[in-house]
Amino acid sequence: MTRRVVFLYGLMLLVLIGVGFFQSWNVAFGIFNLCLISAVMALGVNMQWGYAGLFNVGIMGFTALGALTAVLVSMPPVQEAWAVAGGDLALSFLCLVATVVAIVLARRMVPPAFRMLVTAILVVAGYFLIGVFFLPATDRIESIDPALSGYLGGLGMPVLLAWPLGGVVAAGAGWLIGKIALGLRADYLAIATLGISEIIIAIIKYEEWLSRGVKNVTGIPRPVPYEVDLVDTQWFVDLATSLGATDINEASSLFVKFCYGLLFIVVLAIVMWLAERALKSPWGRMMRAIRDNRDAAEAMGKDVKARHLQVFVLGCATCGIAGAMLATLDGQLTPTSYIPLRFTFLIWVMVILGGSGNNWGAVLGGFVIWFLWVEAEPLGNWFMATVTAPLPDDSAIGAHLMMGAAYTRYLLMGAILLLVMRFAPKGLIPER
Amino acid sequence: MEIANAFALLANFVIVPATAYGAQLALGALGVTIIFGILRFANFSHGELMSFGAMVTILVTWLLQMNGIGLGPLPTALLALPVGILATVAMAVLTDRFVFRFYRKKRANPIVFAIVSVGVMFMMAGIIRIVIGPDDHSFADGERFLISYGDFKKLTGWDQGIAIKQTQVVTVVVTLIVVAFLFWFLQKTRSGKAMRAYSDDEDLALLSGINPERVVLIAWIIAGSLACIAGTLYGLDKTYKPFIFLQILLPIFAATILGGIGQPVGAVLGGFIVAFSEVTVTYAFKRFLAYLGPDGWAPDGLVQLLSTDYKFAVSFVILVVVLLVRPTGIIRGKVI
């Protein structure tokens, strides 16, 4: 930890405390919690980009997978749905397995000339075979009480379990995608990952039997107490009054945010510790050697493709964990809010601003950029108000510009990215 | 008769819309492929460049409409298009001057270019949303149909009609003109030959005295014009929605890679293949098959391979198959 790191982190903390004093502590803690989640995501991207130089623009997809896992783990199961459709779902799963096995076997036995043709025929046949059981099953599930459930529900387990599991699910998806797209040109990986994340979001949005789609899943159980319960609890009321709180409702919401913050700090600390250990180990040195000179590393006998797959999976897993944390904090899964501008490109700006290849930098970038993203709105309003001040009050242009104020955040993010890339490509905290 | 009806049904719901959509994708992919061929990076800001061009065209169209200037049966946007093209070219050349040129001088890694283009994308998205707002705008005017569903039925006496929208005709005609002009330019003119030489082998082209800055400038002028035309046509045909231009990047990239990166012919081919697959795979063939089968018979299901929700997934699947089977694309692209 150099003096620079301490200084920059201290400054960030001061700014957040400033928000607490000038806006409100609730806002400050709200920003802080999302900063922590962003920092975890930034660590994931830093593993892929900073350690290995992989340009993954599918972060949003992996985040959404983590969020979906939070729903599937923690929501209570819908018994009725399992009763009417469980058998058919099992059958369609068996058909899926049979199709995959058939394809693998066929590709081994058929001469290479027909391999493509046979695979294509088997894929189409399997698709229709699965559809025979699958489509009626999903229709039945979705017709059960559509306003309130209409999906399979989850496992009804504690939501904290979803955090590591979200990582595992995202890692699985990452492995599959990495198998397909890694080893190709770098920009191909970018385009392919952008595509896969769009598909993951489309599936979560439209497969209502799985995730309720655009009807959203709300009320994901919390790992921390609820505000309404806290207000009625004696020890909390005592604690709040002894700390000098005037408004018990505000105190309870602060306390909940504080608990979330503690949980997130623990996760961030674990991920950070592991990431730092990995970076300092021979493995980390090998990754950076591959990044800096792929051919030389390959000549030294390093299996570049396998290492890339490894680090890609690890980065995806980290993003999945962050996604599960995010869904837990929101208490809901809203597929429409998973847009690449926020979950993919924003995280990229964080890593590049913070300093690619440096974990401390990535975390700092996560804090700074999320803070700016949130505070850009009041800032944009103020900016537009200043610009339009000389115009008369009823001017149409003035009103129009005020409407666009919220979008100055895109301008700001783009400007930060371009300026950092141009004038400080190593970021705030350069790689050692 | 039955066969005619089946054909009309297919034409109305698949062939006509897919042709128009394919033309729009082809124009977009041409722009991406030219930047890929000359500057050798995946330009993520191309979608927003299209959006920017469409936005300027819309603003000028509104101005013209307010003053009562129109083209009769044709959309007023065609009159506004030259202004849009000028603005988009200016935007493209300015971003090159202030952003991309620095990295070109440094001979930076293609990924750095791609990341920088993301920054450009952010800024353009911000400007567009501040100027025109995030809402939908429909700016098509003039005659709505070349031939409407009802007229066609009356004319032929078939059960099924084919509706051809004016915007679809405009799209296809404009695309034909633009593509013909572009290929003439690339094949016959001195500058076009210089561009192809530069794209084939940069060092050799430099040795033969080709001025790289000039080639790059022409590439941006072409890419900007194509982006503006593609964006405007897409907005005319559907409606103009700022957020759609991030999504449309995916089919455009798919078309580019499918055709072979840096290959203009491939880009056009890729655009149409992607468009036709998207529309065919998500079309329900139930009524089509019912016409072809025996009387009174109809298939049980919708005979739809994928629900329309997954339209964008189709282009991705195409992308993956191409990457796995023939990563160089249909017409062998030079960059791999």
TrEMBL record, chain A:
What is the protein's major site of localization? membrane
What's this protein's name?
Answer: Branched-chain amino acid transport system permease protein
Q: Name one GO molecular function term.
A: branched-chain amino acid transmembrane transporter activity
Membrane topology per record = Multi-pass membrane protein
This protein's GO CC annotations: plasma membrane
Residue ranges spanning the membrane: these are: 5-22, 28-47, 54-75, 81-106, 113-135, 155-176, 188-206, 254-275, 309-329, 335-353, 396-420
Which species is this UniProt entry from? Thalassobaculum litoreum DSM 18839
Q: Which InterPro entries match?
A: ABC_transp_permease, LivM-like
Q: Which domain of life is it from?
A: Bacteria
Subcellular location, record wording: Cell membrane
Keyword terms, alphabetized: Cell membrane, Membrane, Transmembrane, Transmembrane helix
Q: Which Pfam family name is an example for this entry?
A: BPD_transp_2
Automatic annotation (TrEMBL), chain B:
Transport found in the keyword field: yes
Q: Which keywords fit this entry according to its UniProt record?
A: Amino-acid transport, Cell inner membrane, Cell membrane, Membrane, Transmembrane, Transmembrane helix, Transport
Q: Which GO terms describe its cellular component?
A: plasma membrane
- Biological-process GO terms, alphabetical: D-alanine transmembrane transport; L-alanine transport; L-isoleucine import across plasma membrane
Membrane topology type:
Multi-pass membrane protein
Q: Where found in the cell?
A: Cell membrane
Q: Name one GO molecular function term.
A: L-phenylalanine transmembrane transporter activity
Q: Which InterPro entries match?
A: ABC_transp_permease, BCAA_transport_permease
Transmembrane residue ranges: 20-42, 49-65, 77-99, 111-132, 168-186, 215-236, 242-261, 268-285, 305-325
Q: Does the keyword Transport apply?
A: yes
Which family does the similarity line name?
Answer: Belongs to the binding-protein-dependent transport system permease family. LivHM subfamily.
Query: What name does this protein carry?
Result: Amino acid/amide ABC transporter membrane protein 1, HAAT family (TC 3.A.1.4.-)
Q: Which organism is it from?
A: Thalassobaculum litoreum DSM 18839
Task: Identify the taxonomic lineage of the organism of origin.
Answer: Bacteria, Pseudomonadati, Pseudomonadota, Alphaproteobacteria, Rhodospirillales
